[in-house]
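Quick sanity check, Membrane protein:
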Amino acid sequence: MSLRTLRHVFPPSVRRRLSDAALARITGAIEAGEATHTGEVCFAVEAALPLNEAWRGVSSRDRAHEVFAQLRVWDTEVNNGVLLYLLLADHAIEIVADRGFEGRVDAAAWQAVCDEVQARLRDGEFEAAIVLGVERLSSIVAIAFPRGPGVVDRNELPNRPTVL
C-alpha cells in the first residue's frame, strides 16, 4: 500500500482543522464576496478520497471536478460558478471554474489563488487560508462578472461550506 493510500485510510480530521465557527466565518466571506459580483463561489473540503478512488490513484484535480458536478456548481444561469476544493489527505487545493469564465480569466490567475492558499495551509492557518482564497476568488469573479448598481442577484448555490 502506498503512502498516499495510507493517508486516505487514516485521514486528518476536517473538524480539527475547521470548527463550526470557522465554517461560519467562511460562509460570511462567501456572502460578502458575492455581494460584489453575480457569480457563485463555493467551498468544499474533504478529509480523504473514497478508498476505491484513492486505491485507483484518482488525483485531487479529478476529484475536484467530480465534486464540482456533485454540488452542481455548473448549474448557474450564466455558467459563472467556481469551486474552491480542499483535499486534506493530499494537502491539495484546487479551483474549478465553470465555462462562463473561459476567455475572461486565465489559468495563471486561478493558480495564483491556489499558491496563496497553499502557503497559508503549510503554515497551519486553515481558516485564514480558506477565507483568503474565497476573498481572492471573489475579486476575480467581480472583475469577470461585476454586480452593477441596482442589480439584484439571485443566490443560486448555498454559501455554507460543504464538508464531504
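Posting the structure with no commentary besides this: The longest strand covers residues 40-46.
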